[in-house]
Amino acid sequence: MDVSQHIFPNTTDFCLLDCKEAFTGLTTKEKIYAHYISRASYYGGLIVLYQTSPESPGIHLLLTKLFRHESLQQLKQTATSLGLSEDDFEALLVYAAAIYANSGNYKSFGDSKIIPNFSKEKFESLIKGSQAYKKDTDAVVELWNSVGSRMYSLSPRETQLGLGQDGITTYFSSNCTKEDAAIAKEFFTQKDLPAWNTRCFKHADGKIEIRLASSVTKPSGDLTHLGEHTMKASDGKDYKFLVTRGDYSSLMKLVVDNLALAKDYAADDNQKLMIEKYMESFTTGSCDAHKDASRYWIKDKGPVVESYIGFIELYRDPVSTRAEFEGFVAIVNKEMSAKFGSLVDQAEKFLDLLPWPKEFEKDKFLMPDFTSLDVLTFAGSGIPAGINIPNCKFVCLFYFVANGKNTYS
Predict the structure, then answer these.
(1) DSSP assignment, residue 367?
(2) Cβ pair 238, 231 in contact under 8 A
(3) What one-character DSSP code corresponds to residue 6?
(4) Whole-Å CA distances, 105 to 41, 42, 96, 188, 199
(5) Chain segment 253-287, per-residue pLDDT in tens
(6) CA quadruple 394, 36, 15, 61: dihedral positive or negative?
(7) Alpha carbons within 13 A on the beta-carbon side of 135
(8) Neighbours of 341 (CB within 10 A)
(9) pTM for the full model?
(10) In angstroms, rounded to a whole number, what is the distance separating the alpha carbons of residues 143 and 366?
(11) Residue 176 phi/psi, 5° resolution?
């Protein structure tokens, strides 16, 4: 097997996102606001590990323990003493960077598995010679035993993300088939429920559990669709469903707690209302509350500290209906925003110069709000060069920003 598509070579470049100048220019209040939104984003970003593969959280924790207990220089000395070469140690660093950058051991763009570019035997010897092993032996041994083999395995099913026998996914339990996914999609359509913040688990009796991400775990009157359901599908058969919540509950609570702290430093009442709706969504599992947060976000024109957080992009769900958690915090680059703002002001004139007829354009041009941002925090499976959000078409159309609010770089 050609493993080249599954490794990151030692020549992989590392890029520094420098936002020191932008952050220094903030007021104390703005810095604290950015700090707590960043913490909320990073805690939520850990959810993506659980959304990627069964072994991703364990790999992330193992690497974190490895680097936390000694400096890179000390770890390199340990590696050398154990017979690892310079290339082996560099391969470790590149692999770790790939895991952190992709929020798991599958590529965020491409979906193929990422494996270390040095042998399993050398990796294990470094693990067992590390300070992490000496100071926390039982935990490190348990982690290595649970993920060591899966880190390197390239069985046909494990080479890429996918559903059933086509690949690996954690959006569905391993016994779910494409037919189950289609039935689940029909359930969401019949009940008019968004699937963004859900996962599907098929029980032994055939019942499909729809689990919502939320900090609270028990049902109450705030979400009426929780509980047992029977659906008559288009094939004429009855299917049993159970809608629960509390997926990722411990991480969702940390997100909510830090948003609550950020709220005290919000710039105005609109930002406070936006955060309150984020908190409601992440506490209860309500997608409607997140839509409300997006409405307030759209109204938050020209903030000094820009942010967005939640289950946003459908990158790695094999049926493209469930979203990864994502959170970013950025600071307005006023000079660049002014330059491109002038370009945006002329956008309608440029439409006449495009190489297609007017029939291919919207009946009415909707002027976007453009902001160039210096990224302070990005928690998710990959940093894009730019983004158009929110993804909810109803919110975009209702507030006349269908061409997007933000671009950042």
Answers:
(1) P
(2) yes
(3) G
(4) 20, 18, 10, 30, 19
(5) 999 999 999 999 999 999 999 999 999 999 999 99
(6) negative
(7) 9
(8) 15
(9) 0.89
(10) 52
(11) -80, 140
